[in-house]
Amino acid sequence: MSKRPRKVKVVWRPLGKEQAWGQATVPGDPQHPMIEVDPRLSARRELEVVCHEALHIAMPDLVEKEVDRVGKAIARVLWSQNFRRVVQGKHTTPVRISK
Questions:
Q1: Which pLDDT does position 80 carry in this prediction?
Q2: DSSP characters for the chain?
């Protein structure tokens, strides 16, 4: 019997005090992990950090060196396929592609 998939919340906030580009946390409830990303990063570095932190949540037993290597490899493939974050206006409704 499989568990309900975890919904990861991604928050964009300056992480100057933490001296990090991003961090993955599991506050209280392990079913609701959170990724925090510094919004001052370049688009490519942002993608790399999100992949890196998502790996920390998906595979918590991986050592940092492996997380870093695999996160960069995933980000490189996604970037080469033109995956980008689209920033929409405050009052814009996102286009629904499929149900």
A1: 95
A2: -PPPPPPPEEEE---TTTT-SEEEE--S-TTS-EEEE-TTS-HHHHHHHHHHHHHHHH-TTS-HHHHHHHHHHHHHHHHHTT--PPP--TTPPPPP---
